[in-house]
Amino acid sequence: MGIRAATLIAALSSAICMSFAAQAFETSAKSAIVLDLGTDLTLMEKNADMALPPASMSKLMTLNMTFEALEDGRLSLDQRLPVSEAAQAYGGSTMFLNTRDRVSVEDLIRGVIVLSGNDSSAVLAEAISPDGTERGFAQMMNERAKDLGMTNSTFANSNGWPAAGQRMSMRDLALLAKRLITVFPQYYGYFAETEFAFDNRAPDNRFNRNPLLKLNIGADGLKTGHTSEAGYGLVGSAKQGTRRIVFVMSGLGTQQDRASESERIANWAFRQFAEQQLAEQGVIMAEAEVWMGTAAKVGLAATEDIKVLVPVLKKDGVTAKITYQGPLEAPIKAGDKVAELIVNVPGIGDATHDLVATETINSGGFMVRVRTAATVLFRQLTGQAATLF
Predict the structure, then answer these.
(1) Residues annotated as binding site for substrate?
(2) Domain Peptidase S11 D-Ala-D-Ala carboxypeptidase A C-terminal, which positions (predicted)?
(3) Number of structural domains in the chain
(4) Cα dist from 221 to 181, 189, 195, 224, 236, whole Å
(5) Does residue 244 belong to any structural domain of this protein?
(6) Which domain holds residue 158?
(7) pTM exceeds 0.85
(8) Tell me, what CATH number does 328's domain have?
(9) Active site residues
């Protein structure tokens, strides 16, 4: 037995012949990354693993910790939390909280997302922290970041206030954004809110700073950031049709630079790539040979719809192949993983998808074993190919 390739059905071959090559995207951001969530492909990156001051974009980690606490019951949305002197003392973007306040967790979340509240971030941090301090919460953030595979992130506080050693990479921020979108869809709607007038304390400060939310390009999140050290940055996400992208950038010179560059990068990601469906869940794509079974072949199908993202400018030839260790030995159960579909998009790389058997093939009886033995003997004597069953 050895590695074998199954013949792809005609429908798949015709779909993948619509192939193109990408044009590189040049950005003025110091560091950037663009992901397509549906295909889990990186469309562009620039210094994506460079650890940089994250400014308020690091509040996404505080929100992740808050959502986790909501899901396991440590917090509830209607729970009211006290405001400490340490939280009240924060300057910059705030909810204008004071120590007389007891604020609901939901309002604090909206304060973090819409108003970029440094004080609301600290209130949530102190409530979740094992020792009730923001320092203790930062240590929790660091430990959780490692668990999540964020290899270039170090936190010193809950809100991105400038601090020695506080760093995040754009890749880590993209990973975090993807998690917030896919793991916590029940809370993701907060990111699309354009204004939040908490207690009407600062009417002029009620607007979301995300410049993309009003542009009608499908943007619905996530977080801006700015300090003099970090420059202007954005963690953005947008959805058009069935496609969703996440893009992260940092180190832009002005607020206007951030707005124009983020719009430009979103438009590029949607316009320069097209999504093609290669396989439909459960539909037979090809057949694999079976050894010593009640049938000579078994159908191969994907466990979910398989889509590929291809650049739309220059035809270069997307290739796809099905491989399996074969012939497959019976018995085989319907749903067993038995093969892989490997799709290569030039300029992007390979994507591998599991394929499963579409039916159960039992072990053959006496006559099947006799015919199989005869077939093997015939091949050995003549060197010719013969049918196994």
Answers:
(1) 223
(2) 273-363
(3) 2
(4) 9, 9, 13, 9, 5
(5) yes
(6) 49-271
(7) no
(8) 2.60.410.10
(9) 56, 59, 116
